[in-house]
């Protein structure tokens, strides 16, 4: 698919978010636009010949964001900067059994929208 088709598909596919935050979590770090950058950065990096990232960690003054790359799902943790980053990353092994079914649903939805894009005129989606 071309870039414009990918962009169109991103707008169609629902983003499922499980949000558990307290009032001290920064609001802009919870925005879908910010959290979705891992998938785009990983895709661009793989086009440059880099292997896909398993995780990305961003540190700020008072918090950190750990994102686990389990495409098409990206799992994001927002924690205090003093939190144990290695422990957060190790949670992936425990989360996989719970998220496998959700991952399959998202992959099926992506396949459907890819098929629909190729077989239906774009104006039928509006």
Quick rundown:
Its main location: membrane. This protein has 126 residues and is an alpha+beta fold.
Sketch the topology as an H/E string, one letter per element.
HHHEEEH
Low-confidence stretches: 5-18
Instruction: Specify Rg, calculated over alpha carbons.
Output: 16 Å
Question: In percent terms, what proportion of residues is strand?
Answer: 15-25%
Oligomer: single chain
Main sheet? 3 strands, antiparallel
Give an account of the 3D structure:
This protein has 126 residues and is an alpha+beta fold. It has a single domain (3-125), classed as 2-Layer Sandwich (Beta-Lactamase). The protein is built from four helices and three strands; from the N terminus they run αααβββα. The protein has helices at 3-12, 32-35, 37-47, 85-119, and strands at 55-59, 63-70, 73-80. The chain has a three-stranded antiparallel β-sheet with strand order 1-2-3. The radius of gyration is 16 Å and the shape is globular. It starts with a helix and ends in a 7-residue tail after the last helix. Mean pLDDT is 71; it is low at 5-18.
SSE diagram, text form:
Layout: H1 3-12, H2 32-35, H3 37-47, E1 55-59, E2 63-70, E3 73-80, H4 85-119
Key features of this structure:
single chain; Beta-Lactamase; 4 helices; three-stranded antiparallel β-sheet; alpha+beta; 126 residues
